[in-house]
Amino acid sequence: MARIIEHGTWTLEPADEGLHEPGSELLWNESYYFDFAAPDGSVAGYVRLGLYPNWDRAWYWAALVRPGQPLVILADNDAPLPKPGTADVHAETYTATQQITDPFGPARITLTGTASLVPDDGSAEEKTGLSFDLRWDTAGGVYPYKDIPRYEIPCTVTGLVSVGGRKIPIDAHGERDHSWGERDWWKVSWLWTSGRLDDGTFVHGMQANVGFPLAWPCFAVPPDGDIEHRDGFSVATVFEDGLPARSDLRFPGAPMTVTPLAFAPVSVTSPAGRPARFPRALCRFETEDGRTGHGWTEWHQPPGWEDHGWTHLAGEDA
Hints:
Layout: E1 28-37, E2 44-52, E3 57-65, E4 71-79, E5 89-90, E6 94-99, E7 107-118, E8 126-138, E9 143-144, E10 150-163, E11 166-182, E12 190-197, E13 202-208, E14 216-221, E15 228-240, E16 243-250, E17 256-263, E18 266-269, E19 275-278, E20 280-287, E21 292-300
Antiparallel strand pairs: 1-2, 1-11, 2-3, 3-4, 4-7, 5-6, 6-7, 7-8, 8-10, 9-10, 10-11, 12-13, 12-21, 13-14, 14-15, 15-16, 16-17, 17-20, 18-19, 20-21
């Protein structure tokens, strides 16, 4: 079994790779993420399955980005819940499956369906076929968060993607994560980031803007090494027209900057009709000591996000 960091207030068990008994909250949620980015940043993508059993729906998102080309995205916020005991989604325009047969080991994701082709010049969207057949293999260990039921797994990612019938082989790096509990997307802004540098180092960090400072969790996996917990991650972001232009990641021992290369955003609406924006982007990572790499970063923007503690410099240099 993959090495699991032991530093939390709860114990991660192999059974936690599966589905959990829902709590009573309307916005109780179980979430699986899978993302990948080619080492040269030429292609990247992600899948998210979010289950809201008490709201009687799932959120299913799948995106593919290639810098300079239209975004390919399937974002269904009213998907049918999977059948009990499975994490497969069967909708009118797509079918998606998820298999994790060996806890903390390989995960296989498939998708066959129709997605939107979104040009960045604002011209009309088109529809196109999109399929994924991808495998995430654990690289370096498993990272449970300290105080909440959530864990992250750095991975190598291999398989095949098809867009409009064109097949794209994938040999990439990425991350997968799993969390469960109440998830109110309309309360708190956050940044989450994960990438791999050109020397083989994986990095991950997150910061939620809860109104007071915390030692936010982060980890690194050195080349050919095991996962290492680090404390004290924080971030400052420059926004332009509401979108992140650059984030300076204060990563212990390796400060770095992430710059968005291609966005794959979604929007979400609460049961009460409140909107939130979720810009997620393939980014270029650049460390102060000269290393570079690629990965994914997200900047969640709930109502009033500008007042939630972000460094908001709208077009100025940080």
